[in-house]
Design brief:
21 helices, Rossmann fold, OB fold (Dihydrolipoamide Acetyltransferase, E2P), six-stranded parallel β-sheet, binds magnesium ion, seven-stranded parallel β-sheet, binds adenosine-5'-diphosphate, alpha/beta
């Protein structure tokens, strides 16, 4: 897009990047500067009038106009007139004036009239960073079919949206935007959003790719899969196949694998490393515990094979491991400690629980193992389910695979509970602990708070410590939290914590989670917490403790176990504004588009932008 200096300047002031975005800055009102010969009440109208007299009082001015177009007089009223307003009205002069026309008892008046020079048109009014007349002129002169077409917008949509900026009589009369117009606005909004996203995607040559026809050698994960103690689920296989296709391309892959907690993403990670072998893979995880766990799983599920006398050598890197020569290993698993080590080049980079890392950390890892302009294939894994339509939007800048089912049905009973249920809850906890199962109690705060009507960890802990043995306590700022979690995993009965325990560590004996003040948390956070229990098929329980008498949101949450359903519910409630301030996690990114409803438009935009 070639912009003149003036255009570029205006784009900057309006904080926009394209003509499509300009098109989206629609007028908030129209002014009809055409001359009509019929007077309409309650309407702002243009008059062609001679000023007959002027009368000033303390804080207003009254003007008598003879309106030639209507053929009779009108009284003009200016309340609290500013000095500059006065110059517009000279007795005996004939001009065009514009203002709201009203009639009472046969006497018609025009409120706050002002002199106008542009006559004969319907003029849009804008509320933007530019003055409305500057914006008007900018739009009129620049928002052309050609400019919009050059951005590859659909032509029908262009016509529809231009009507808003170049209004017709019909537009003026309609009180609401037509469904067709709203559709066009959604389309253009998505179009510019996805185009911007697509623009951020860079394509790099891959450091190494798999030979495309794989028989036996690289990329053959089926042989490995046959050694597993279980069958991969269809969705795991589909995802692995998608990754396999990525890995055979010359272009470095960029893919996000979204799967609910417990959907078996680790197997996808391991399969990817197996496919990539003998090229090297690196996997980064957000915590030491998680890195350890992944390392152990890798050792367990990728046993040494004697094929061609080689096997995948696996290393673990945390800040506790000594400096070793990593170039001897084929699969390196670690925490962000990796970022401070001498890393050999790696042809595949994976990041687990990617949302726990900053963009900088993720990019740094990719860079550390790249060489020149060539980059490793890159896979990120996320346990935060997103609505399908959102995933489709994301495909503008990253490929997305979704795993929506879990390998075994999780049997978790979820319930909303209140103070009156406490006795039963206690009974339940006792019986779970007796069965050698574990219970997680999530409190909203560490310290006591005046504003919150729930106990904090500090207040609650002594009660639990008195009533039970093996009670462990940790929270986000606790430096020892990883150590506490490890000890709890081995020896604990009850863990008291804040929402820190979000991270994907496996607690096989954990059967129950109680979330105190559940209404304060977003549905996706609740879902993450619930995902801690029943990880390996144990009968699970999730109790949402609340002081609220009723909450539609929580009631609907307990009805479903699918993270993708929860993501859709979250959308629904966010729209209805039921979420408390501050707990809205992602905000609304669109003005017109409704992720819950507009899948078809997303598809059209994808097609028009040629995103496959
Ligand atoms: P997440 O997607 O949360 O990372 P994990 O990969 O940790 O999930 O898997 C959760 C549990 O399910 C693990 O104990 C894992 O061994 C097991 N698992 C993974 N895939 C399968 C499968 N196809 N069949 C049975 N169990 C599986
Ligand atoms: Mg995981």
């Amino acid at each position: 897009m070639n912009l003149t200096k003036e255009q570029a300047d205006k784009f900057k002031k309006l904080s926009i990047n394209s003509w499509s975005e300009l098109a989206l800055m629609i007028p908030h009102a129209y002014e009809d500067f055409r001359l009509h010969d019929k007077l309409q009440i309650h309407t702002s109208q243009l008059i062609d009038a001679t000023v007959e007299s002027l009368y000033r009082s303390a804080n207003s001015i009254q003007i008598t106009f003879y309106a030639h177009n209507f053929g009779h007089t009108l009284t003009g009223v200016l309340f609290r007139p500013k000095p500059y307003m006065l110059h517009q009205f000279q007795v005996g002069e004939r001009n065009y004036f514009y203002g709201m026309v009203e009639c009472k008892a046969g006497q018609c008046s025009i409120t706050m009239p002002r002199k106008v020079t542009t006559v004969g048109e319907i003029t849009p009014k804008y509320k933007t960073a530019l003055r409305t007349d500057v914006m008007q002129r900018f739009v009129q002169n620049n928002l052309t079919r050609e400019n919009l077409k050059a951005e590859a917008l659909d032509e029908e949509m262009i016509e529809e949206i231009l009507k808003l900026h170049f209004p017709t009589d019909a537009m003026l009369k309609s009180k609401e935007l037509s469904p067709k117009t709203v559709y066009a606005l959604k389309y253009v909004e998505l179009f510019s959003h996805m185009k911007l996203l697509a623009g951020t995607r860079r394509y790099f040559k891959a450091l190494a790719s798999l030979p495309s026809l794989v028989e036996g050698g690289n990329g053959n994960y089926t042989e490995w899969a046959a050694t597993l103690p279980f069958k991969l689920t269809n969705e795991q296989i589909d995802t692995i196949e998608e990754i396999k296709k990525d890995l055979t391309k010359d272009v470095a892959a960029k893919r996000m694998v979204v799967g609910d907690v417990g959907s078996g993403k680790t197997m996808v990670i391991l399969a990817s490393a197996v496919m990539m072998f003998p090229h090297r893979s690196i996997l980064m995880a957000p915590t030491t515990i998680l890195a350890n766990q992944l390392f152990e799983e890798a050792l367990k599920f990728i046993p040494p094979s004697t094929k061609e006398g080689r096997h995948i050598k696996i290393a673990l890197v945390t800040n506790k491991t000594k400096k070793i020569d990593l170039s001897e290993f084929d699969f390196i698993i670690g925490t962000h400690a990796l970022l401070y080590r001498e890393l050999p080049h790696a042809e595949l980079v994976m990041v687990d629980e990617q949302h726990r890392f900053g963009t900088q950390q993720r990019n740094l890892l990719e860079k550390l193992v790249s060489s020149g302009k060539e980059k490793p294939h890159y896979l990120q894994f996320s346990a935060t389910p997103i609505p399908r339509t959102q995933a489709m939007i994301e495909t503008a800048h990253i490929d997305v695979s979704m795993i929506t089912s879990t390998p075994f049905k999780k049997d978790i009973t979820s319930r909303v509970i209140h103070k009156s249920d406490f006795k039963d809850l206690l009974q339940h906890i006792k019986s779970e602990v007796d069965k050698n199962n574990q219970v997680l109690l999530v409190y909203p705060l560490v310290e006591q708070s005046e504003v919150l009507e729930y106990q904090s960890i500090t207040e609650a802990r002594s009660y639990w410590e008195k009533s039970f043995e093996n009670v462990y306590v940790t929270h986000g700022k606790d430096k020892e939290k990883e150590e506490v979690l490890l000890q709890f995993r081995e020896k604990g009965s009850i863990l008291i914590a804040t929402t820190v325990v979000e991270v994907g560590i496996s607690l096989p004996r954990l059967s129950t989670v109680v979330i105190v003040g559940a209404e304060r948390l977003g549905l996706s956070t609740l879902h993450q917490l619930r995902g801690r229990v029943s990880r390996t098929g144990l009968k699970g329980y999730c109790f949402l403790y609340t002081n609220q008498n009723s909450s539609d949101r929580l009631e609907q949450f307990v009805e479903t176990i699918s993270g993708f359903d929860i993501a859709n519910l979250d959308l629904k409630f966010r729209k209805s504004g039921d979420l408390l301030k501050g707990s809205n996690q992602s905000g609304n990114q669109f003005k017109w588009v409704d992720i819950g409803e507009d899948e078809e438009i997303v598809q059209k935009v994808k097609k028009d932008l040629k995103i496959i």
